[in-house]
């Protein structure tokens, strides 16, 4: 699930120049290709002021009293870094945890969910291609669909449709992984998937997330966070990026029987922290979240 991007120029032929976001493989955890996605996202996640109120297709959940129980534990899992997290119980229609849920992070490959929705909605890609993009976090497919379907407009179009208050397209139109989002907005993405998407789109996307491979298309180990930290059925979309200049690792998805819970944990840490250590931090955060799940 590495970042990549395309240099989108005035001439369509120039779309073939794609930026990559990963680096050489490490011994314990594969390292993403070094990316050119620098200076687009905030160098550190920031709390953004709430935008002007507007109708939201997906209402924001209200945290329950359980939320404070795990907040301190979760923040402590990423020393020197930042955490933005939310856990939403679909059966009870409430948030169980909301920790810095409106802090803005770069999405890395989480934006592939929006790319997938758009391609399936327009019929511009086969189900098999979208499945590969999501399950293996294939950057080349994401880049191709990003260019074919309008680039930045994919983000603005679906943010409006889903009521994502703080999800914004990348400043550089070629760097899709520098799209910005928050934990609360990512919960809305999953709620849209489960509550409002067509049966066909839901089936393709959820099936792909259930089939997330241990090794991504670039060789990076995707089994951090939810897959290694929560002993329940899952369907996940992971994200990682190296050059913001912080090192970002995100774990998100549906957890539990009948996909009862939506778990979103977004993290960043200094680039001096190894991928292996960062992955362990996110897994520890997911383990701390599991106590909230029945």
Automatic annotation (TrEMBL):
User: Listed GO molecular functions?
Assistant: beta-lactamase activity
Composition bias (Low complexity) maps to 63-73
The source's superkingdom equals: Bacteria
Residue ranges for the region (Disordered) are 36-81
Recorded source organism is Amycolatopsis xylanica
Q: What is this protein called?
A: Beta-lactamase class A catalytic domain-containing protein
Q: Which residues form the Beta-lactamase class A catalytic domain?
A: 129-267
Pfam annotation, one family: Beta-lactamase2
Q: Where is the composition biased (Pro residues)?
A: 52-62
| Gene Ontology biological-process annotations | beta-lactam antibiotic catabolic process; response to antibiotic
